[in-house]
Amino acid sequence: MTIKVLGMGCANCHRLEENVSRAVAELSLEATIEKVTDFPAILAYGVSSTPALVVDERVVAAGRVPDIRQIRTLLAGVR
User: Is the entire prediction scored with pTM above 0.85?
Assistant: First the structure.
């Protein structure tokens, strides 16, 4: 599983990355977590507001920071 956190490095982007890391650990998933800060790359996902969460190249959240429980639910649905 490849998980990408899209954002320019704001506080919410960092919080999303932390929440994703915790959710992945809690679910014992084998996943690669990447930060994408390149603006054109973010736009290529069709995201107009950050932070955004991409799982296996599918945008699953944008413009908000899902809590750890919500991220676990999103990741469990993708597995």
Answer: yes
What are the pLDDT digits (tens) for 25-73? 999 999 999 999 999 999 999 998 999 999 999 999 999 999 999 999 9
Domain ranges of the chain: 2-78
Q: Is 61 an annotated catalytic residue?
A: no
Indicate the Cα dihedral angle 68, 16, 41, 74, nearest 10°.
10
| DSSP conformation class of 16 | H
Q: Tell me the sheet residues that pair with 59.
A: 54
Domain 2-78 of CATH type 2.60.40.10? no
Q: How far apart are CA 12 and CA 29, in angstroms?
A: 23
Active-site pick, 2, 8, 9, 10? 10
Asked if 17 is an active-site residue, the reply is no
Choosing from 13, 23, 42, 55, the catalytic residue is 13
